[in-house]
Input
Amino acid sequence: PREAVDAEVNSNTAQAMGAVTDDEVIRKRLLIDGDGAGDDRRINLLVKTFFKWCNSGSHEEGYSQYERMLGILAQCEFSMGKTLLVYDMNLREMENYEKIYKETESNIMAAHEKIAECKKQIQQAKRIRKNRQEYDALARVIQTHPDRHETLKQLEALGKELQHLSRIKESVEDKLELRRKQFHVLLSTIRELQQTLENDEKLSEADDVQETRMDTQ
Amino acid sequence: MTSSRAEVDLQRRLELVHMTVFCQSFSPCGKYLAAGNNYGQIAVFSLSAALSSAAEEEDQKSVITFTAHDGPVYSLVSTDRQLISAGNGDVKAWNWSEITKKGCKEAWSRKPPFRANLELPEINCLLLNQKDNTLLTAGGDAVVHVMDMETGAFTQAFQGHMDYIHCLALRDQYNECLSGSEDGTVRLWDLRTGQEAQVIDVYRHQECARPQYGKWIGCLATESEWMVCGGGPALTLWHLRSVTPTTVFPLQDCQQQVMFYQDLILSAGNNPTINHCQISGGVKAQIPCTAPSVYSLAINEQSQENMVFQLETHISSR
Output
């Protein structure tokens, strides 16, 4: 109750000076049983019954008071047992809550760590994606150029053709050379023959002239 | 009295209609966003206030707005202590620690060594090279200037582009930087020697060329062996070793901003959408946004909530 709390503040300050005031007692009693019904009343009843029993005259009255006292004591014990059980239960409940609290705390920390881990993974994945895309971009450009093997094959084929053609050219040139030499031989022979024929004609003319000169003499 | 207030209101509304936000940058702590617009102002927003669940109208306005340059602010970039802004010809630095106070003064202001011109060419793009502690700037004079952050001196100048440069990107592993320009080429520069390492004529390739939009390269992003670029030609993914275009993304509009993020390519351009594309060529998602055209995309890696911001006329976040 509110009054109990206020009283506590006052009593704390008073206790600091070393005095236990009336407020302290009032506070304790209010805390224990503020409403007045229940255990406090029972204890008062017990005390009253005890006095009645002590002051009782007759045996039956005393016995009945005695019975009543036992009854009240039983009730008090029962109530005390209940309170103890409730107290135990509260303690265990507290422990349970502590455990749950610690578990939740550790879960939260684990979740935080996981989040950080995932963030790092995202960055990594982004980097990987970027690299892959860069690779793709370059690959696309490279694809537009013709295949290297194809080009090499084409180059080889062209080389072979070139060789073949140059061989043909060589052979044709050789033939040309040969024919030229043969023609040269032919022409020189013809010229020689011509010369020989001319010489022979000249000789025969000279012979004729000598003969006519000899005839006239 | 009321007429002048109405005039001021009208003027403010006209300003808002014509305002274009070109660039943005997050603070090193991830709690503030700075944005530069075409009036030369830089507005600083507090992200934690604006995007918290209890945000109100007031929290979404800027914490502070100050005039940084005479002309538009085209590019913003953040180091761990300073915000560097670039506009028409000059580069200024502001300290993040002082920026939220009123009357912020620039920490330093430098001008790249342009050839003698009547006009100062605009600086379209700033890039920080953390390895060498240098700042690369590129813009209207078609030259990439390299400035050493410690001394403030301009050490190198890469010449070669025929027309002004839109965007820069850095390849740390090979110590190279790429620049995309209006002349339709992407050039790779070796940072150590200062020589032009390679020229990629993007608009000459049939797969991506879109002559109806022009040949300008509006946006560049690189990641190890790959480069994605877009603009007039379609947004294409290139393999840099072999210099071949591998994937052309089926996006209709001209892309003005592109970046690699995890395994996706985020891009945005003339349409009011942010496109999430995969390297394989598919467009995974197209997130609509309020701005009709997007000039800047940025990802806030410092804060718990990763947010991709896009800007043009309005500021909004996804």
In short: Chain A touches chain B through twelve residues (CB under 8 Å). Chain A has a mean pLDDT of 87. The first helix of chain A runs from residue 2 to 16. Residues 36 and 142 of chain A are 96 Å apart (CA to CA).
